[in-house]
Amino acid sequence: MSEKNESFSLPALTIVVGHYGVGKTNLALNLVLLQRKTLQGGKTSQALVDLDIVNPYFRSGDFARGLQTLGISLLGPVHGASNLDTPSLMPGIDVAITEASPKHPVIIDVGGDADGARALARYASMIENQPDRMVLYVVNSARPEVSTPQAALQIMREIEETSGVSITHIAGNTHLKEQTTAETVIASLPYVLNLAVDAELPVAFVAAPRSYAAEVQDAAAAGLRTTTPVDIQAVEATNAQPAPTLCILPIDILVGCSWEALSPLVS
Amino acid sequence: MSEKVLMKGNEALAEAAIRAGCRHFFGYPITPQTEVAAYMAKRMPKIGGTYLQAESEVAAINMVYGASAAGARVMTSSSSPGVSLKMEGISYMIGANLPAVIINVQRGGPGLGGIQPSQADYWMATRAMGHGDGHIIVFAPSTVQEMADLVAKAFDLGDKYRIPVMILADGLLGQMMEPVILPEPIDQENLADKDWALTGHQDQRKHNTISSLFLEPQELENDILKRRERYLIIEQAEPMAQVEYMDDAEVAVVAFGAASRIARSAVNKARANGVKVGLVRPVTLWPFPKDILSAVGDKVKALLCVEFSTGQMIEDVRLAVHDKVPVSFFGHTGGIVPTPDEVVVAIERMVAGEQFHILPFKSRLTGGAS
Question: Which residues in chain A are closer than 8 Å to B4, comparing Cβ atoms?
C-alpha cells in the first residue's frame, strides 16, 4: 500500500458510530492497531472504549486479552466476568475522553443505531469540548437497512439526534465478510460519495480488505470519475473528496478470528 | 433473483417471514433473539402489519393462537427460557390444529442459564413441546441462508398440516452475520384458503369452531388419533437431512445446526489426515430423518454425535440405527462451543474402535467415561 495510507493518522479522539452490523467493532480494532504503529517512541498510551452496552455478542471487549498484551487499555462495560446483559459504564471513560491527546489517543466503539448511540449522549458535552476529534459514521451498503445513501442518511441523523454528537466524517466499510471481493468495495464507492454529498461531510476513508486494497485504489483513481453516476462537481462543492483522492484504508477481518491468528498483524 | 446482502441470522429470520406473508408478530425481548422482534417492530408498521410486544411470552403465544385461528400467517420468537413459558400455548395450538411459526434462538439452560449458544432444547422441541399427545415440526438451520429459506417452508408446512412449526436456531446462528440471498416475496393471493379459520360465516356456511377442549374421552381419543394419522404422513413425507462425504466413509459424524458447521470443519481436517469420515446433518429434527440415518448406519462402522449439550439427539440416532453400530458422543454445554480440533480427536478415537460419551468436565478428551 502507498505511504499515504500507512501514515493515515487519527486525531486525539475517534468515535465510531453507525448502523449495527456494518463492521464498527472490526474497524475500531483495525484503527487501534493502525494507530499503534504511528505511536512508536516516547511516552505514549492508547485506549479503546467499548461503549456497546446494547448487544452482548461480538464486541471489542471480546479482545480484552489480546489488547492487554499490546499495552492498549480497554475501557469496557462492567459485567462481572462475562457477557452479562446488564452492563454499566466505567467511570474511567470520562477521563479518557477529556484527557485524550495526540500522544494518548482514544478510540470509542459505539453500539449500533440510535439505540446503541444513546450511551454516547452521556458524554456529548465532553466530546464537544475535545477539539481534536473525528466522529466516523461507518456505512456498509451490503446491509439492507442502509443500502441506499438516503436510508444511511436517515440513520445517521437518528444517531446524531439521540447522542447529541455531530458526525464529522463518513467511513466506507462495505463488505460481505469472507465473500468480500475488490468488486464489492469498488461497487460501493459511488454510494459512499453520494452519501457524503447528501450529508455534506468529507469521506475519511473507504476500508478494503488488505488483499484487495491496491485494486480498489486503482479502480477509484482510474474509473470512478467517468463510469459512475456520481456528480463529481457536487462532491467537490462540498468537503467530500473526489474519487481519485479517496483514501483507501487496508483492513483485516479481526472479529470472529482468534487473537492468536492475529498476532502476525501486530508484531 | 435478489442480490446478496449481509444479514444477521435473526434479521434474516424476520425478513424471510415477512416475505413468506407473515404480517403479524407477537413477542417479548430476550437475548439472543431480540433482533427478530426489533426488526419486526421497525418493519411491520411500514407494511401494514402488526408488531406487538406482549406483556409476557405467555400473552404473546396466546395472541399467536388468536391470529392463527383467524387464518393469518403469524410468528413469535423467543429464546429457551421464553419458549418454556410459551409451551402451554403451543400445546393448546397443537390441540386446536393451529399453524404458526415459532422461533427458538437457543441459549444455555436450565433456568435462566446463560446467554451463549446452546442446543439443549432438542428434547423440549422434539419430545415435549407442551403437555399431551402431540408434536410440532422442528427445523434446524445451519446457516443464515438456510434460516431465510426454511422460514418460508415452515409457514407452508404449518398451513398444509395445521401444525405449529419451530425453527430451532441458537445464539450462534442468530447473532452471526453472513451473506444471504433473500427469498422473493410470495403473492398472498396464491395462498390456499383456510376454510377452517374464524373469518365470519356471513350466514353463508356453518360456523367454524376452534378448540382443544374435549370433555368426552372418546371424542378426545378420536381427535388425537386423527392427528396422529397426520403425524404419520409427516413422518413419511417431510424428513430432511444433508448427507456429505459418504461415498467412501467408514465412520460418520452426526450433527445439526451450528454444531454441524464445526463438525464439517472437523471432518475436513480428519479427511486431510486420511480418515474416511462422512457427515450427516438432520435438517428436520421432528420428523427425525430415521431412514437416512438407518441407511448411513448400514454403511459405517461407527457414528459420533456432536451437540452443544450433554447429548440429546444421540438418542434419536441410536433408535434410527437400532444400535447396529456404536454411537459415541462429544459435546460442550452451557454456552461453550466445541472446537474442530476437539471433534477431530473424538473422530480419531471413534476410528480407533472406542465407544464413549465424553463430557468436557471428564478431563476433556483425555479420560472420558464410556
Answer: 142, 176, 179
- Phi first, then psi, for residue B277 (nearest 5°) are -125, 135
Domains B4-200+224-237 and B242-358 share a fold: yes
Residues A250, B251: Cα–Cα separation, whole Å = 44
What is the distance between the alpha carbons of residues A217 and B343, in angstroms, rounded to a whole number? 42
* A190-226 pLDDT, tens digit each: 999 999 999 999 999 999 999 999 999 888 877 564 4
Q: What is the CA radius of gyration of chain B?
A: 21
**pTM reported for the whole predicted model:** 0.88
Q: Where are the domains of chain B?
A: 4-200+224-237, 242-358
B115 to chain A nearest CA, in Å? Answer: 8
Cβ <8 Å between B178 and A177: yes
Superfamily, domain B4-200+224-237: Thiamin diphosphate (ThDP)-binding fold, Pyr/PP domains (3.40.50.970)
Say which CATH architecture domain B242-358 belongs to.
3-Layer(aba) Sandwich (3.40)
CB atoms within 10 A of CB B333: 21
pLDDT at B314 over 80: yes
B116 contacts A21? CB cut-off 8 A: no
Q: Do A142 and B115 touch (CB under 8 A)?
A: no
- Determine the residue of chain B that is closest to A140 in CA distance: B6
Neighbour tally for B53: CB within 10 Å: 14
pLDDT digits (tens, 9 = 90+) for A71-104: 888 887 765 555 555 567 788 899 999 999 999 9
CB-based contact A2:A250 (threshold 8 Å): no
In Å, how far are A114, A121, B57, B137 from B150, measured between CA atoms?
Answer: 31, 40, 23, 12
